[in-house]
Amino acid sequence: MFAADGPLTLDAIAAHLPEQAPVRALLEEVETMYAARGINLVRRGNRWHFQTAPDLFHILRRADAAPRKLSRAAIETLAVIAYHEPVTRAQVEEIRGVSLSKGTLDLLMEMGWVRPAGRREVPGRPLLFATTPGFLAHFNLRSRRDLPGLDELRAAGLLDPLADALEAAREEQEEPVLNFGEASGPGD
After folding, report:
1. What are the entry keywords (predicted)?
2. Do residues 129 and 81 lie in contact, with contact meaning Cβ atoms separated by under 8 Å?
């Protein structure tokens, strides 16, 4: 695993171990053994790899890697894809309520966080988008299930109070209003 050029699946690891070896149990034992060290064994989706411990990452990161600041549109698009994947461009636009520039998806794919994930089986066969293992690694997530829920986002103050008010107003409009004070019908 130290010499691998990327994360390995259980099958790839098992190919290097004796037959009938308890691969998952061995990996969990190594994960525990390395937890307090400068390098950790981590699982991203269905793949395993070693990475620098989070408390040492800032020391060992490359100095030439300039952080990229994502636009609000890119952040919103990434969030929609992460929470709703696989999703089409039209679905992203519908959820966000605005059209999406082509450059936004290109940027997210260039960063290695979003990938094409096939085509939807509907007329026109639109392209589907999903997150990548690079997305999980960058945000230190084991899987998409580790994404914060609405309650956690609200508690952290990351949801816009105006958006919450608009959502409440929409819910009120959807409720049918019965007005018994006015007569309506053919005999009126």
Report:
1. Cell cycle, Cell division, Chromosome partition, Cytoplasm
2. yes
Which residues make beta-bridge pairs with 43? Answer: 48
Q: What is the pTM (predicted TM-score) of this model?
A: 0.54
Please count the other Cβ atoms lying within 10 Å of the Cβ belonging to residue 101.
Answer: 13
Q: Residue holding tokens 């959820």?
A: 95
Closest CA to 106 of 140, 73, 84: 73
Instruction: Give CA–CA dist 14/84, Å, rounded.
Output: 33
Looking at the fold, whether 56 and 76 belong to one and the same domain comes out as no
Query: Taking a C-beta distance cutoff of 8 angstroms, is the pair 96, 88 a contact?
Result: no
Asked if residue 73 lies in contact with residue 81, where contact means CB atoms within 8 angstroms, the answer is no
Domain count, the chain: 2
> Which residue range forms the structural domain that includes residue 142?
72-151
pLDDT tens per residue, range 37-54 = 888 888 888 888 888 777
What count of residues does the chain have?
A: 188
Question: Which tokens belong to 159?
Answer: 């949801």
Given a cut of 80, whether residue 180 has pLDDT beyond it is no
Instruction: State the Cα–Cα distance between residues 86 and 155, nearest whole angstrom.
Output: 27
Instruction: Give the CA radius of gyration of the chain.
Output: 23
